[in-house]
Design goal:
Number of strands: 8
Structural class: mainly beta
Shape: globular
Number of helices: 1
Oligomer: single chain
Strand content: 35-45%
Distance between the termini: 31 Å
Helix content: under 10%
Largest sheet: 5 strands, antiparallel
Radius of gyration: 14 Å
Length: 120
């Protein structure tokens, strides 16, 4: 399981997050079967609620991922893109910032046998 700090200014997030804001807003959780966005509530992580853009829970099974890619590259990851079919059958795209150890995130994504988006 990989827990990635999102906009973390706390010391415990420093291992996998860069300080972007005075308080920790959220975390990305990559567990055995799903990718999830969680929120910090004091010392606890809580569900982030319904997705404000497309609705539904902010948790997606890897089995529904159709592809993913780091932008601009795996050597200099700034954004992660992924497309999944859990939200809607034709596919929903997502982007999130790489505010953690990009190599660790890359290893976690490649270890799940999800197809990568082909280079253009």
């Amino acid at each position: 399981m990989l827990l990635v700090a999102l906009w973390s200014g706390r010391k415990e997030g420093a291992r996998c997050g860069r300080p972007f804001h005075a308080s920790s807003l959220g975390r990305f959780l990559l567990d055995t079967d799903s990718f999830e966005v969680l929120l910090n509530a004091g010392d606890e992580l809580t569900k982030s609620g319904e997705n404000i853009v497309v609705g539904g829970e902010n948790r997606w099974k890897y089995s529904t991922f159709t592809n993913w890619k780091f932008f601009p590259s795996e050597n200099v990851p700034i954004l992660v893109y992924f497309k999944e079919t859990q939200t809607k059958p034709e596919g929903q795209i997502h982007f999130f910032p790489v505010v953690c150890n990009g190599q660790q995130l890359l290893e976690s994504m490649t270890g799940r046998n999800i197809p990568r988006l082909e280079e253009s």
